[in-house]
Amino acid sequence: MRLFLQIVTATIVIAYPLAVYFGLNYLPAGSIALVLCGVLVVRLLLQQQQVKALLLPIIVGISLTAGSFIAKQHDWLLLYPVVINLTMLSLFGYSLKRGPSMIERLARLKEPELPDAAIGYLNRVTLLWCGLFIFNGAMALYTALYTSLETWTLYNGLIAYLLIGSLLGGEWLYRTFWLKKS
Q1: What pLDDT does 172 receive?
Q2: Sign of torsion over alpha carbons 155, 160, 166, 171
Q3: Which residues have C-beta within 8 Å of that of residue 101, sequence separation ≥ 6?
Q4: pTM of the model
Q5: In this structure, are residues 147 and 124 in contact, taking their beta carbons and an 8 Å threshold?
Q6: What is the enclosing helix (H) or strand (E) of 173?
Q7: Where would you find the membrane-spanning parts of this chain (predicted)?
Q8: CA–CA separation, 46 and 175 (whole Å)
Q9: d(CA 114, CA 122)
Q10: Residue pair 71/30 in contact by the 8 Å Cβ criterion
């Protein structure tokens, strides 16, 4: 049951922009805020024994969704992608300062004995991810404050994921084909 709840809540959190769009357009006022708040509360309860750094964005998400319901302000729902990008920027940026970098940590899961020459490259990739989180966070804030719900949904529910996928895929291609040749 726990695994099922983790999969369902993770899927809803990933699809958050779509859920907000459809909820605001097709459900009674305030109901999507209440549903998303409930999903995030379940996510919080499931998350407690896992990554503690991810507790803050879930708690902020609960505050935004509950506040949206109580204040009857659906605009608050639009700020959650900003919170996620700020959290990821903080995690990746902190790892650059304290070491090892986030990308180095992930690389060591597959290859525990990395050559020293790889560390600089992995730090640069982590810095690149920080740049993406800054850009995505700024765009998420801009779309939340100054654009229509449709534009916000398009950016946060599709374009941001395409950018993340492009960075993942592009870095993998670069590492696989160009770095291996040198």
Answers
A1: 84
A2: positive
A3: 92, 95, 119, 122, 123, 125, 126
A4: 0.87
A5: no
A6: helix 160-173
A7: 25-46, 53-71, 77-96, 117-142, 154-174
A8: 35
A9: 10
A10: no
What is the reported pLDDT for 6? 83
The end-to-end CA distance of the chain, in Å, is 48
Q: How far apart are CA 99 and CA 123, in angstroms?
A: 9
Reported as a single tens digit per residue, the pLDDT across 69-89 is 999 989 999 999 999 999 999
In this predicted structure, what is the pLDDT of residue 50? 59
H or E segment at 17? helix 16-26
Query: Distance (Å, rounded) from C-alpha 52 to C-alpha 18?
Result: 27
8 A C-beta contact, residue 47 and residue 54: yes
Tokens standing for 28?
């009674």
pLDDT of residue 181: 60
Cα-based angle 111, 116, 121 (whole degrees, multiple of 5): 80
Task: Please state the length of the chain.
Answer: 182
For residue 159 the two structure tokens come to: 């374009």
Residue 37, both tokens: 């708040």
In single-letter form, the type of residue at position 176 comes to T
* Residue ranges of the chain whose pLDDT lies below 50: none
Residue type, 124: R
Q: Which two three-digit tokens encode residue 166?
A: 């492009």
